[in-house]
Amino acid sequence: MFPVCTAIFIFIELRVAKEPIVPAALFINSSIPALLVVASCVGGAFFSAVYYISLFFQVVNGNTATNAGVKTIPLVFGVVLLSIGSGFTISRTGRYKIFFYIGPAFMIAGAILISYLDANSLLVQQIFYLLIFGIGGGAMIQTRILAIQATVPIQLIAIATAVSQTFMTLGGALGISVLGTIFNNVIENNMSNYATLSTAVATLEKAGVPVQPSNVLALIAMINSVPSLSNVAAQATADVVALFTGAFHIAYLSLLVFPVTVLIMTLFIKEVSMRQKN
Question: Which residues, in sequence order, are CB contacts of 39 under 8 Å at separation 6+?
Answer without folding.
Answer: 144, 148, 164, 165, 167, 168, 171
